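>> received
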Amino acid sequence: MERLQKVIAHAGIASRRKAEELILEGKVKVNGKIVTELGSKVSSNDKVEVNEIPLERETKVYLLMYKPRGVISAVTDDKNRKVVTDFLPEIKERVYPVGRLDYDTSGLLILTNDGDFANLLMHPRYEIHKTYVAKVKGIPSKQMLRQLEKGIKLEDGLTAPAKAKLLSADKKTQKSIIELTIHEGKNRQVRRMFEAIGHPVQKLKRERYAFLNLHGLNAGEVRELSPHEVKQLRALAETGSGNQ
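>> returned
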């Protein structure tokens, strides 16, 4: 379900603010009935009319992007930094990222214009697993890795159980590569978890999102998700089986 004014704005009829004015003026109908409440939500099955003209909804778009480092996970930036939609010149629909990756973090990011789908994937109770590969300072002990798995106490709460695996360690440079799988989405969570055990992240990449990976893509490249992949993601979220 999406807010009515957002659906109108996405259809290109008017800006979000103008859409709100149209609703308050009684110029919007949902399934034949005038709706004047701004909090109203509609689904993709609802028939929306603006000034008696049926709304032409955007085609649903589902994209998988390999986000480069130094790019904002947003559609605009007030500091004029590069944003993910700068890499989508041929996409006419107004897509936006599902969740976010930090400016300095690269890797797998999903973009869509399907609000219901985005909300489903971002809801914490659905436990979509995300796998990161981190280059960290120092070599964490087995005890430290177990602590990552059991949970790290951060200022905004204890992290949920995770999976941690040491992929490689270089005693000479005192650096290591660690794979970490989580299903939460706290702000800068992976970086803060490693900082908490005394091994700050020097480089971070999200390698997998549920069953999706970056195979065949270079940084900055995008591909469409297949209908089957979209269906699989919905099923994983709805059944709480996000680790598959």
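>> The radius of gyration is 21 Å.
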